[in-house]
């Protein structure tokens, strides 16, 4: 857990807050935005390439894991 008023202890959270501020300025009442807008913003943020994954998107990383030789067991994966 982090200490109160210590943003340097939770860098990922602060970075995500900054990304959200690109779409919704601080103090924005999110109840005025429909679920479609919120889902679109979430999809955009979740499809951003990540440095820790070699600048691949999370979907690309998952696809690589699922299509790797260790997953070729003959068991069908759900879609």
TrEMBL record:
Belongs to the transposase IS30 family. Required for the transposition of the insertion element. Residues 1-66 form the Integrase catalytic domain. SUPFAM superfamilies: Ribonuclease H-like (SSF53098). One of its GO terms (cellular component) is cytosol. GO terms for biological process: DNA integration; DNA transposition. This is Integrase catalytic domain-containing protein. One of its GO terms (molecular function) is DNA binding. The lineage of its organism: Bacteria, Bacillati, Actinomycetota, Actinomycetes, Micrococcales.
């Amino acid at each position: 857990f982090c200490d109160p008023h210590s943003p340097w202890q939770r860098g990922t959270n602060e970075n995500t807050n900054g990304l959200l501020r690109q779409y919704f300025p601080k103090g924005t009442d999110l109840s005025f935005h429909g679920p479609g807008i919120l889902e679109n913003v979430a999809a955009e943020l979740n499809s951003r390439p990540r440095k820790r994954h070699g600048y691949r998107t999370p979907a690309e990383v998952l696809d690589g894991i699922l299509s790797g030789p260790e997953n070729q067991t003959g068991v069908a994966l759900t879609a």
